[in-house]
Amino acid sequence: MATKQAARPVEDLAFSFSAHGLEGFELAFVLGSGLGAFAERLEDAHTVSFHELHGMPESRVPGHAGRFVLGTTHGVRVLVQQGRVHLYEGWSAEEVTRSTRAMAKVGARGMILTNAAGGLDACWRPPCLMRITDHLNLQGCTPLARSEMGRGTPYGADFGAALERGASEAKIAMYKGVYAGLPGPSYETASEVRLLRRMGADAVGMSTVTEALAAHASGMQVGAISCISNYCAGIADQPLDHDEVVEAGAHIADDFCRVLECATPHLAAALGD
Questions:
Q1: Which among 129, 133, 186, 206 has the fewest CB atoms less than 10 Å away?
Q2: In the chain, where are the structural domains located?
Q3: 2-271: CATH homologous superfamily?
Q4: What's the CA angle centered on 35, arms 86 and 104, to 5 degrees?
């Protein structure tokens, strides 16, 4: 019953996407905290705010513009979700992933998720970029229905290779590693950071995991990039705050945009016909 009830808001949001002209694309991007500059660089842009779309939850977190931008980069038509909602804002896993599933219904066959994350590797100097190769779901929930079950890691090799190629062409260093998704809103303690490192995580944040699972379950190819905005507790001495996260995103914005722009044609090619 819960699954049938959840399907209706997705259908409503997908209808609203189409009614507002958000269609005619196969590749979608979701931009995290402070990483919205990519959307500003699209050509022939058509913008729709979250609040204009029926059933679209609205973010209240600084650094999230709360809008969709349909536009073109490197000859590829893409839809960019500029900002997201989070579990720690009180939204359910279904609400957090509603736009992901709706984008699949209006034509998305591939999705690139991005986020700002804390770094667990002292050798990686923030701000820097990390391609997510896998994740640890420590958020205590899943967006998947029992019928979907999940099919292993959602992060595909073809999309991963396309992102790597984009970084190489842009001449931007990009690490790769495992992302640990926590519910938030508090930052991790030094003891939690030690545990996460022992579990194999290279970065930690409060998003992305549920969206990746939902996108994969919806039939999309999935890739993801973390902007390592800061060292986690116990690695650096400075206290952590969200303003630092947004500022780090601004510092690396040009590198981040160039990687996505260079990768886009390769991502489109990976989708095939």
A1: 186
A2: 2-271
A3: Nucleoside phosphorylase domain (3.40.50.1580)
A4: 60
